[in-house]
UniProtKB/TrEMBL annotation:
This is RRM domain-containing protein. InterPro entries: Nucleotide-bd_a/b_plait_sf (IPR012677), RBD_domain_sf (IPR035979), RRM_dom (IPR000504), RRP7 (IPR040446), RRP7_C (IPR024326), Rrp7A_RRM (IPR034890). One of its GO terms (cellular component) is CURI complex. GO terms for biological process: ribosomal small subunit assembly; rRNA processing. It comes from Scyliorhinus torazame. It comes from the Eukaryota. Belongs to the RRP7 family.
Length: 175
């Protein structure tokens, strides 16, 4: 059974789907799900209700600077806060195990984007423009794991050539 196809525009739960691509050359696209941020408690000064956008499904390689640049298309951005899970962010939700201290898995994240004016939230939620946003434009590329592997592979090949050259000159002594 094929997964459900997400169409740009309104999604379930009051969210709006914004199509995004990793680069201009990418054919595959993902969707960010956005809606105005509403809180039940007293107003949070860091996240004013009328100027804060709640964003779901941010890829793990997105930085605060990248999210800031991405949502600046909708209006001037005051701040961007990335989190693993929705919440206030003031309490530490991670419990460390005394037996396992390895790196945690990077999952898709959520963000709270605060605009200078309420019009920024309205522009982000409006479903008029739905060309896919580019996450890694050529002027601000994002470094992913695959690019790091390619750089390491290139350095490895250069080192192999240096070793071959030293062997040819008989200056290579492995022990």
């Amino acid at each position: 059974m094929a997964p459900p196809r997400v169409v740009a525009g309104t999604a379930g739960g009051g969210f709006t789907a914004i199509p995004v691509r990793f680069s201009a050359r990418s054919r595959a696209s993902r969707h960010l799900f956005v809606k105005p941020h509403r809180v039940r408690e007293a107003a949070d000064r860091r996240r004013p209700q009328d100027r804060t956008l709640f964003v779901l499904n941010l890829p793990p390689y997105i930085t605060q600077e990248c999210a800031h640049r991405l949502f600046s298309q909708c209006g001037p951005v005051t701040s961007v806060e990335l989190q693993e899970k929705p919440g206030t962010g003031s309490k530490s939700e991670k419990q460390k195990s005394k037996f396992f201290s390895g790196p945690s898995a990077q999952n898709f994240r959520v963000a709270y984007v605060v605009f200078k004016k309420p019009a920024g939230v309205k522009a982000a939620v409006s479903s008029k423009r739905r060309e896919p946003w580019v996450l890694s434009p050529s002027d601000h590329p994002i470094k992913t794991g695959l690019q790091n592997i390619a750089q390491l592979r290139k350095k490895f090949e250069e080192d192999k050539q240096r070793i071959a050259l030293l062997r040819a000159e008989r200056k290579f002594k492995p022990y």
